[in-house]
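Please discuss these two lines.
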Amino acid sequence: MVMTDPLADMLATIKNGYLAHKKQLVVPYSKIKEKLAQILVKEGFLEKLKVQKSNFKILELILKYEGKKPAVNEVVRISKPGLRVYAGVTKIPRVRYGPGVTVVSTSAGLLTGSEAQKKNLGGEVICQIW
């Protein structure tokens, strides 16, 4: 199976895991996926992240629920392989639907939109999560 957009596959897996009320998920490892998962843990959308090593690395994501309600309502992939979306520091989009986070790929690595603005960095808008 060829994955053309591994980040979109990871985000879809997380969204589907919440819809199916799963406790944990396993996704193939990459550095950018690990950094995205670390941001989601830090922002409170995932409970925990584990990197497991066997013949190959995998990411084990522990999903977070508030009672029976999932911590993630929606995940939207903004920049795609066929259409990249870039934003300057003043044009980084804000999440419109309540508390959420915009993830931006900058020259300093993956950052949330607010972190990128504090560091005065723009970049590729990866996704929005609320």
